[in-house]
Structures are given as structure tokens and as C-alpha cells.
Fold this protein.
Amino acid sequence: MANIDRIVNVQISLNTNNVSSEGFNTILVVGAHMNGTERVKTYTNITDLTTDGFSTTDAIYKAVSVAFSQIPRPRQVKVGRRQIEEVNVSVNNIKDNTDYTVTISSKDNKGIITEQEYKFNSSTSATATTIVSGLQSVMTDDTVVTATVESENLKLVAKSSKTFSVKVSSNLSIELAEPTEEIADTMSAIMASDSDFYGIVLASRDKDDIMAMAEWVETQTKLFGTSTSEPGAKDSETNTDLLSMLKAKNYYRTFAFYHELADSEYLEAGVMARCFAIEPGGETWANKVLSGLTADNLTKTEYLAITNKNGNTFETSRNKSITQNGKVAGDEWIDVIRFRDWLQEEITVNVFNLLINSDKVPYTDAGIALVENQIRQALLLGQRRGGIAPTEYDEDNNENLGFTIEMPLAANIPANTKAQRLLENVNFTARLAGAIHVVEITGSFIYENLISE
């Protein structure tokens, strides 16, 4: 029997290769912890953090909790781990003839995780010192940490900066030493593990850590939010506070709030979660109602001092607590920075997909038009989402375009440039839609008749 392919031969190619795009709706909370060896872990609800060993008093837990408290809430929040090399274990419940357990987990260079449990049973007349000494005696051969007794604490120090985590039984507790890992090193390790996030919240309120994160973020396509409770932040004559320092550096990827309870509440996680629920271009970071956070009571003078430093506030207006200002330290609107980053990524991915899913994009007017179409699709999407203004008209019906694209003609491109297979002089101009934050209305009362025109 003759094969039908002789007459009709159908081949369907899979031009569905896709390059992944950055997660412009995803938050990463960065902090030191011992609840696992993963550099990045994704959480879809707050309960999973307690399951992993986070306490409700932990800074990371507080930040993630605020994010999940918003309406609408994010689908997920990622937690990035800042490495700790020293942990102190203490006894919080002394009992005779009771098991005390310390479990050390570690990860090798191949990503293989090993777990070792150490158990000590207290004798009669137990004390905190005898318990931690007993645990130290059974941990002398551990290859991951060195265990020593200091007063009533068991001190665990990483050997050769090995990555490790610690779990203890309920009758013990752990206290983390201050991290020695630099912020840039932390973020480099996190990015190597999982770079699919956009917003960053730092659990640390240390000013040096915050400035280091702001410096790192400025080199990335990311957005960093933080808060400060420094009294100097709301004093116009002070220039050594965090807001002043960020403004002096002209950071365009860092926004900061003044918040009196910044040490215990993560306002930046709340506003980030609330605004990330909206696609880039459709939001403004001012006038947002947030849940689970305490509003500040500021005077007009204090508000002006904060906003003149390009800081942001969370205050009560009538019966609503809302964010105010909505700027990064470099005096640009936060939503503009996010939309710009999204549009850059959208155009990049669109054109890249064209190139990898085509047998060839010819260096002709038709091929150049294919590239133009990919740019146009990104700009039209940005227009639909509200970041780029639509085409509008003035009182004389003159057209005011939302965007224009300039593409070179193939005939005008030098032969040497064509030989390099490089398309240059591709330009677009887009008109930002912006947002209304404040409305000023002037009215008047009269006795005369009003005649419509």
C-alpha cells in the first residue's frame, strides 16, 4: 500500500520555545535563619513557616506574615537565607532523666543533604551546664560543626564555613550569632540558587546592612524596600538618618518608609505585596490601604521632612490608613521604576523568542518589520495595563500618540553592519500614563442665573 505521505506530507513544527521572564510579582524576604540549608525556599502560606521551625517572633516570619495579610494576597513569598556560622544552644526546661536532642543538617558541594541527630539523656540532679556538657560530649566527632561549652550554652561553630542548619528538641532553644556574610555574598548565592523574584525585603534593620543591600540592588533589575524608625528621618535638619543617606546616594531601586514600629513591623512587605498584586503599569504606590500594620501619627512638618528626603509614610486619613508619596530614594515614582523594568524585560523576551523560534529573520525590510512587531506588541500590552498612555486628542482634534517606533530601512543600513548581522538604530518613545495622587478642586457660589453654553 502506498504511503499517503507521498501525496500530502504535513509537518508541524513546535515554535513554542519560551525564555523565562522575571517574576515582577514575586517578593523575596532575606534574613539569617537556621531552618533549613536551602538558600531560597518558596512559601504559599504562613503556616508552612512555623512547620519549618520559624517562630512568630522571628523577623522573617513577621515580614512574610505582613505580605500574606494583604488583600489581595500574593500567591507565594520566597525566603532567602543569609548564612550563619555560629549558633548558641541553651536549655529552657531542665528535667531529670529526659532526652535532649540536637540535629545538624548540612549540604555538600553537590547539593546532597545529610542529617545527624545527637541525643543526651539527663541524669538526676540535672543542670543546664550538665545538659549542654553532655550534648557536647556526644558531638565531638561531628564533621560539620565544632561544639564547645560556654557557661550554660552549647556553642556550635561551622567548620570551614560549611552550610548547616540546626533543629533542637522543645526543651532546648537556639540563638543565632550575628551574621558575618556580606550582603553582596548573600545575594550572589541567592541569585545562583533562584533569581526569579523582583521585590526584596531585608529582615535586618541594621543601617549598614540596608545600605549594602541598596548598593547591590542598584546593579540589578530588582526593587528593594525598607523602613526606619529613626527620629532623625522626620527632622528636616538631620542628614545622617537612613532616608537622607539613601537620597544622597540617589538610589533608584530602593524605597524607604518612615515607620515608628519599623523594628517590629515590616511595612515595606505589606505595600510591596499589595502593589505586586497588580500587573506593572496598573498601580501606584501611594494611597494604598494596608492590613495588619499600625499607622503613624505625623505632623505636617514631619511629613514634609520625610517626603523631602524622598521617603514615604503610612498615615490615617479620616478612617483609612494609607500610604503616602510612593517614591524611590532617587526621586522617581516606584511604579515607574517597576513598569520600566517590566517593559524592558517584555521587549527583550519578545524579540528573543522571535529569533530563536524562526529559521531565519532576514535582514530585509520584512525581517526588520518582524522585530518592530515584537516591540509593538510589548508597548500595546503596556498600554492596556495602564503604564503607557493611550492615543489622545487635543481640543483641535490633533492626535497625541501613546508611543512611536522608529525602525531603519534595510537600504539605509551600511553593508558592514549587515555583515555583522546586527540591527541598530531601533528606537521607541512612549508617553507615560502617570497617576493622579492629589486632586485640587475650586468652586464658587453665585446668585445669578447659570446659562449653559
Notes: Residues 334-356 form the longest helix (23 residues). The chain has a mean pLDDT of 92.
